[in-house]
Design brief:
Elements: E1 6-11, E2 14-21, E3 24-31, E4 35-38, E5 44-46, E6 49-62, E7 65-73, E8 79-81, E9 84-86, H1 92-104, E10 111-127, E11 130-143, E12 159-166, H2 167-173, H3 177-192
Parallel strand pairs: 6-11
Antiparallel strand pairs: 1-2, 2-3, 3-4, 3-5, 6-7, 6-9, 7-8, 7-12, 10-11
Length: 193
């Protein structure tokens, strides 16, 4: 970026200049013969606010069969989901611990391992006329067998209840397909180990 909020790139004999105008980019073509041709196609590229966070597939072993955490949401929408939350302190692993404690009541000492699934779950929604993107990094968390869920301590009162259930049950319950796909990825990873 140049000091006047423009970014220039040569394309053949023309230069494309992108100028920031509020929350948008304005395209300007620069031609060596004609000078500046302002926004010939009236193209605007809107910036979308993107919030980062984590989404967690948490499980514990139970009689050699994993049981997965699923939460019944009641705030903003109703349905079943995996634990998730906004990125805290720019630290994904710390955010996993914070969100498990806030959303499920599971304390750090019950966490046996945290594995980055190297997968993002992304979605968009509208708020006050603005499109907001979410980009949540996925983690697999193995919990101790004596772990239990207590949603009553959630500071945002987001969930009605939380359960540990078999893979097939959680797979059928999850409201959103991207979370179901993530659950399948995690289950395959667990069963291949």
């Amino acid at each position: 970026m140049t000091p006047d909020n423009t970014k220039k790139r040569s394309v053949g004999i023309k230069t494309i200049c992108l100028k920031t105008v509020g929350p948008c980019l304005e395209v300007v073509l620069l031609s060596p013969k004609k000078g500046e041709i302002k926004n010939p196609s009236h193209t605007k590229i809107e910036f979308m606010k993107t919030e980062k966070g984590v989404i967690i597939v948490a499980y514990k072993e139970s009689d050699r069969n994993p049981r997965f955490t699923v939460l019944k949401r009641k705030k903003n929408w109703e349905g079943w989901e995996l634990p998730k939350g906004h990125l805290e302190k720019d630290d994904y692993r710390e955010t996993v611990k914070i969100e498990l404690r806030e959303e499920t009541g599971i304390e750090q000492q019950s966490i046996e391992s945290i594995t980055d699934l190297e997968q993002l779950v992304e979605w968009e929604f509208e708020e006050d006329g603005q499109t907001i993107g979410r980009e949540y990094k996925a983690f697999l968390v193995k919990l101790s067998e004596d772990s239990y869920i207590d949603v009553s301590k959630n500071p945002c009162d987001e969930h009605e209840t939380g359960l540990f259930l078999r893979f097939r049950d959680v797979e059928e319950m999850l409201t959103y397909d991207d979370q179901t796909e993530l659950l399948r990825t995690a289950y395959n990873k667990i069963t291949q180990e």
